[in-house]
Task: structure prediction
Amino acid sequence: MTFLVDHIYYIGCFGLILIGMYIILAKSNLIKVIIGLSILDTGVNLLLIAIGYINGGTAPIFSRPGIEANGMVDPVPQALVLTAIVIGVAVLALALSLAIRLYRHYGTLNLRKIKGQKW
Amino acid sequence: MRKFLAIVLLLILAVGIAQSIGKIPFGTSKTKVGRYYIDNGVEETGATNIVTSVVVNYRGFDTLGEVTVLFVAALGLGAVLALKKKKQENDELERASLVLTSGCKFLFPFILLFGSYIFIHGHLTPGGGFQGGAVIASAFLLIYLGCRERKINENGAKAIESLSGLLFVVIGLIGLAVGGYFLLNYLPKGIPNTLFSAGIIPIIYIAIGFKVGAELTGIIDNLMEAED
Result:
């Protein structure tokens, strides 16, 4: 129980990652697979942010003179996630455009029905 | 069968993950690099937003790579969707209601203003080039959805995108010429917490804001044209 309380954020993040992986593995509709990819991406980003958290921490911005540096959360994972979100959006856009092309070419989005697709 | 196999595989994975995350304590300070950035970031870069100083100054190469990834994705999306470009002028589009159309037109400049505010104040407040660019692209998405006959000038969007990307690289190359390494912060740092501070960071974020805004608008444009 104490494990659950201490690591609730990690468990949530890995839950999202596992849900995304399950969707990618088990679903056959291409749009659903792309949604799974997006959920997985969100889980990874949340995990990175959760690892950088410090108890009672504030955002790493010196917006007022009185703010002390001690209580700030780690800025490095936030910068990493900023990069990762943009890359995730780029991959999502490209995957959606490929889905549009596939639908035009085959007339279906079911991955089992697309010819030459062993998956 | 397939779902059962997937669940078994994921259960094995979950047990392994549970073993490993039990070792990572939650809520304690873990890195020394982050501590260094917080302690010295304001003097070294002039930006009070430490995340901005990490993204644009300490790890500027990451941002350059990120901008490149977005550019390549937009280019690839255009190439994938542009092959079938007959584009009959579809006049049969159902017009939106007057309330929606006027509402979109009314909100458009405000959203543009707010997006510009976000990327100009990237070194002082939360946000920055990518966030501001996304807000600006959302304004264009509103116009695309609300007033369906409106179009952006594609060549203009491509020119803005390329020129602002070029501006980013040129600022970095000037750093190479002036002080010895790429993306050096060579402009005066100014007084922290004022608009004209932090050297090259605001200029780079303005370039990124324009670039991301134009790129996401181009992606929206391509995807809207793709529908049959």
Q: What stands out?
A: The two ends of chain A are 40 Å apart (CA to CA). The mean pLDDT of chain A is 84. Residues 2-55+71-113 of chain A form a domain with the Helix Hairpins fold (CATH 1.10.287.3510). Chain A touches chain B through 47 residues (CB under 8 Å).
